[in-house]
Every structure is written in C-alpha cells, then in structure tokens.
Amino acid sequence: MANSVHVSVEELYVIAYDILTSFGISKELAARGAKTLNAADARGVDSHGVARLTYYDRCIKSGEIKTNPEIKIIKETPVSAYYDCDYGIGIATADILMDKAIEMAKKNGIGIATGKNGHHFGVAGYYALKAAEQGLIGFACAPSLMLAAPTGGKEKMIGNSPNSIAFPAGHKTPSMMMDMASTMVAGGKIQMAVRKGEKVPFGWILDENGNDTDDPTTFEDKDTGKILGSLLPMAGPKGYCIIVMIELLSSILSGAKTGPNLIGGGAGLGYFMLAIDPEIIRPLDELKSDLDDYYYMIKNTPRKYGVNEIYLPGEIEYNNTQKRLTDGIDLNINVAQELLNLMIKYNKLPQNAELKDLFKEAVDLA
User: Fold this and answer.
1) Domain spans of the chain?
2) Does residue 257 contact residue 87 with C-beta atoms inside 8 Å?
3) In whole angstroms, what is the distance from residue 43 CA to residue 10 CA?
4) Which of 40, 174, 320, 357 has the fewest CB atoms within 10 Å, counting from its CB?
5) Helix 27-43 crosses helix 315-327 at what angle (to 10 degrees)?
C-alpha cells in the first residue's frame, strides 16, 4: 500500500465539510471549521488539518463540544467584544471572534475579541493571516489542554499556548507571519509521529514519569488519544514564561479555564483575537513599501556555508500554499483511512467503501 494519497486542496475541504456536518454541526459552523482545517493542510501544517477530525469526533461524543452552541456577546464596546462560545467547536467559534475583531478594526482602528467556553481552535496562523489579508495586523492566541510541565516540574500543568502574529503583505512580498506553539514542538506533530510510527528528537517530550524520550507513544496513547507525557517549553524558562503570559491573556482575562480546570481535550478554554488597522499610525501604502525593504534586507543577508536561502517568518508555509493549491497534497495514508472510517461511521459511504470511493479525484492511489 502507498504511504499517501495525492488529493487536491479543494477536495479535502469538501470532505472536511461533509464530515463536520455529519457530526451534527450546523452548515455555517461546518463551513468555517472546514476552511480552518483546509488552511492548515494547504500551508503544510498537516497536524492541524483534516488529521484533527477524529479528535473532534471523540470530543463531540464525550460531550466536550456542542454541535449547536448558543454563541453570544456578553459585553461589547466600539473596540472590544467579549463572547461566550458555549462549548462550540473551536475551529469555527474562534473564526467568529476574529471576524468581529476585523470588523471593529476596520471601523474604529483596533478590534479585540475575547471568549470563554471555547475548545481547540486549530492552527493559530489562520486567524492572524485572515486579518493580514485585509490590510490589518492580526494576532491570535489561545491556551490548550495540559501538554507541558512548567520549568522545574515533572508533570504537565500548562498548555502550549499557540499564538500567531501576521503583517499585511508588502507591495512585492508575501505577508510575514509567525505561527507557533510555545513548546519545542506542537502536540499535533507528536500525534503525527505516532500515526507514522516514527521516533521524535530527544528534547521534545517527556514520558509520564518525567523522563526525556524519543518514543511518541509514551506521550500519547495511540488507541485512546489520552495524553500520557508532556511537551517541553521552548527555550527553557523563556518559553515557560511565554506560555503563562499567553494563558493569562487568552483565558484568565476572559474568565475561561486553563490547566486541570479544562474539560477533556480542552473544553472551556478562551481565545484572544486582535486586529489593528495600520492606518491609525500611518498610511498602509507606506508600511507596505517598508515591509518590502525589510523583507529584502533580511533575504539578502550573507549566508552561511551550505545555506541556499534565508526565509522570512511564514515564507515556507506561503510557498507550501502556492504549491499545494496548484499541485495538491500527499495526504498520509493513515489519515486518509481515518477520514474513510468517519464517512462510513456516519453513513456518508457504505460499509464496504474503499479509499477510492472517498477520494474520487485522487491520483497515485494504491
């Protein structure tokens, strides 16, 4: 059997939408959620794309995620909105908050949207880049379920605080954007290693006894998805401090849950979305010119021996997106099988369906 299925970005969106609606999620939220997952797959962040659907299925079945939440604004000012997300699926509810932040920024120069009772919101960069694509500066962050041990601790107690900031594209250059977890690596990358049967570098994770390990199965139970071990904060105590500050900003500020107070895979966490119109400082056209100059200044830095190119933050993912939109994606075969199993489980396909029945546009399918 092949190791992957070659499929178009567009077809993955349709599959994600079909599966989300089969979970009982409304068409509006499913469309938002499928776009969030699709952006991750397009950018090459495969751990946060359709590979997450099995996880969301478990969270819905356990009652952590409501399929039809009553999302409402608790408090609103011209530049801020405070939401109760009512435990809706995070890849859709967080998107609503960023749209609100963008709306306020366009009208009043800045927009801040916070929320409580959220859930795992997928790839943070999707939200920040959404603002950047509309000529704004975007920032998005959230906590996560307990994944990391604080500096000096041997048990997980904090999340990995995914966060992203993105600037508008220049006149000639792509948007510069940072999208990262605040641990050595995102938890999703460990989960992908489990699926692939691969080892991970030492220094990424600890097992359940607090020991350094390269075995991803000591971090997560392959069958149940239960997190056994913990991630290590990036840059030691510096990463730990960033994690704490992001949790304060995205959850404590909004009265949301963190750490052991979260339910299951992250139910009850908060969001913080920020959009800034550069025009409140100076004309966007001027900023874009300076962004181009800055990009080329970094790009043209003399390179070390053996280095072919210097990349700006987000540039590799930008290149991935352009290539994958044109050429398609090599979807991991285990993830492809998980999608097929979900389609069969929810009667979207017959019990005897095969991968070729799901991926009708796929090529190189063995």
Assistant:
1) 1-62+328-365, 65-181+235-327, 184-232
2) no
3) 13
4) 357
5) 110
